[in-house]
Amino acid sequence: MMFGIGILGLLFGLVVLVISILVFVFWILMLVDVIKRKFKDDVEKIVWVLVIIFTYLIGALIYYFIVKRNKK
Fold it and tell me: Structurally, how many domains does the chain consist of?
């Protein structure tokens, strides 16, 4: 019975690892997009960089839905 639990634990750990890597890649992509994007003023860019850095996934998602998705 321990073997089955070990496999499920390993599978769960692998899923968590993959999701964590995907979240990190998304966060990096949003940070790079902020740095490359032209804003009306530099203060807006600095604010977005700080929001994404200090709030991690939440800030990246907010940036994606407010700025990136609407300005294509």
Answer: 1
Structural domain including 72 reads: 25-72
Q: Each residue of 36-57: pLDDT tens digit?
A: 999 999 999 999 999 999 999 9
- The answer to whether the CB of 28 falls within 8 A of the CB of 60 is no
- Cα distance between residue 16 and residue 22, in whole Å: 10
Among candidate residues 12, 62, 21, 70, the one with its CA nearest the CA of residue 54 = 62
Asked if 33 and 3 touch (Cβ cutoff 8 Å), the reply is no
**Do residues 55 and 26 make contact, with C-beta atoms less than 8 angstroms apart?**
no
Residue 67 lies in a domain: yes
Q: Is residue 61 part of a domain?
A: yes
Distance of CA 62 to the CA centre of its chain: 10
User: For residue 50, is it within any domain?
Assistant: yes
